[in-house]
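So, can you check these tokens?
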Amino acid sequence: MKFNSRIIGLSVLLGISMGLLDSALGAFVFKEGSFLEVAFFSVPAERIVFRILVLSLFLLFGILVSQHLFQRDLEEQKKAAHTLAESEARFRELAELLPEPVFECDLDFRVTYANRKAFELFGYGPKDLRAGISGLDLLAPGDRPRARESIRGRIEGDDPGVAEYTAMKKDGSTFAMLFHASLIREGDRPTGLRGVIVDITHRKRTEEAIRESERRFRNIVESSPMGIFLYEFYEDGRLVFSGSNPAADLILGVDCSQFLGKTIEEAFPPLAATEIPEGYRQAAREGVPWNSEEVIYEHGVIRGVYQVSAFQTMPGQVAVMFLDITDRKTAVDALRDSEEQFRGVVEQLNDATYILFDGRFDLVNPRFCEPTGLTPQEAAAPDFSFWD
């Protein structure tokens, strides 16, 4: 049986106080003598018995109240312990279902709990946990000092947030992980840490693959004989110049770095009145390629005819490849003019004249058509054969 010493002490004090009150009444009200005589020296036997009885009653009352309070506290402690046990059980059940490692450790970094996923990822087992596992041993040696300082900071009230470390398995192999933890408290006193670990190996490999892909793409861009512009599309509709290759400078005869950070309309004003910017935007947004065999551009020192193709490199980004076909266009136009002049001369000849190519008439003049009864169009038709 346990008692509350404060309650019992108070009961005894009240009993003694009642005895002193009785002595005061006898001395000052009933004039039985001085207070000291009534209280200690000339005390009748019946008054001593009365005082002992009163003191005993107060003491008994104190014991009963103390026992009642103790029982109530005990019940409340049992109830709190049961509630805590249920909460811990629910936490354990939930932790075992999570696809990520969950752990708890004390202030000395000794692991006190780990879920199934943690055992699987790190290669340890419940037997290892019972034997003792230091949380710092689960990190690569180079990361341990930084982790120790970070955990000390958490205990002292700092919150460094999510941290990235290189974890080490039981077999010594390593992997990249994200670590986040919060303090376990008993009242206001920190007793340990509870946290989650996320294996980011796949994400790291993906990031590295993306960087490698970007590096290869950049090498292709830099070494391409075609001019290449890179644009980035923003949600507000802006298409911003983000890069170019050396061939672009050579083809256009300008330093294209001057366009960095400008929208396509700012960098190349004449294009604003054409369908070209929207074609580039559609390529960046939806991955729909845009092509044109002939884009005539004249602004500043940039003047020429260009063959242009735009395609998405990744969502929100577009590459524009172009060739200067000005000389080719000039040559084609010159050849067309020459052919038209030659045709005009042939048609003016008074003699029947024709050009036969691969058994087909490629050109006939009106004088040739007179004796045959054919029109120039019929003679030059693809399905007409002179030999038929």
